[in-house]
Specification:
Blueprint (H helix, E strand, L loop, with lengths): L8 H7 L1 H22 L7 H18 L5 H4 L1 H4 L5
Helix pairs in contact: 2-3
Length: about 80
Amino acid sequence: MKFEIVENARCVLRHAWSIRLILLAAALDGANTCISFFTAEPPVSRGLMSLITIGLSVSAAAARFVSQEKVSGKADADGGQA
């Protein structure tokens, strides 16, 4: 298997919901870790933060399979017809 960057990588980075959800999950996980260093009792339980992060990660994986016109183009939204 050969890994290649997609032709419209910049467009994907700017518009894909999967990227946005991954970045949000990473930010929440980082915030959860930082808060744990500074306080014994965080404002939101660690379990809840973990569930939110897992939910965002699963949503990002699902979003990768949803056709997005700005990312995939009109052809993919029509089932691959040119």
